């Protein structure tokens, strides 16, 4: 299996510094990161590790759910997945990821709502990104569209 790579260059201190995350494997772009924007409600044109984790988790979960639906005997027609990753204080100091909310709306043929919910829970467990983030509380909201 392949290994993917991203690289960050950082200049300055935590509060006044700026970094650039370069997606090396895909060569899709370079994105600015700063701590003040990371900790703010408005990202204002800058990404963050939490947004990048959310992107990875939503994509991984969509793939895992597609496979789980097929294993349950259904055919996925459309899956809309949102991952919301929260950053907060760590009781032992510093910061930590405090929670992840996965939200999926799925249009599926060949399964009823119960089968879709079962596949959604299986995918939450089987997604490699979910497995990597086992120290974070991951919740799931699954909406079946007949």
Write the layout of secondary structure elements.
Layout lengths: L5 E6 L6 E6 L6 E4 L1 H5 L9 H23 L3 E15 L5 E15 L3 H14 L1 H5 L4 E9 L1
Parallel strand pairs: 5-6
Antiparallel strand pairs: 1-2, 2-3, 4-5
Helix pairs in contact: 2-3
Could you characterize what this model shows?
With 146 residues, the chain is an alpha+beta fold. A hairpin with a 6-residue loop joins strand 2 and strand 3. Strands 1-2-3 form a three-stranded antiparallel sheet. Strands 4-5-6 form a three-stranded mixed sheet, covered by helices on one side. The chain has helices at residues 35-39, 49-71, 113-126, 128-132; strands spanning 6-11, 18-23, 30-33, 75-89, 95-109, 137-145. The mean pLDDT is 96. It folds into two domains: 6-39, no CATH class; 49-145, K homology (KH) domain (GMP Synthetase, Chain A, domain 3, 2-Layer Sandwich), CATH 3.30.300.20.
Kindly estimate the percentage of residues that lie in beta strands according to DSSP.
Answer: 35-45%
What is the subunit arrangement here?
single chain
Instruction: Report the CATH topology name of the largest domain.
Output: GMP Synthetase, Chain A, domain 3
CATH H-level homologous superfamily name of the largest domain: K homology (KH) domain
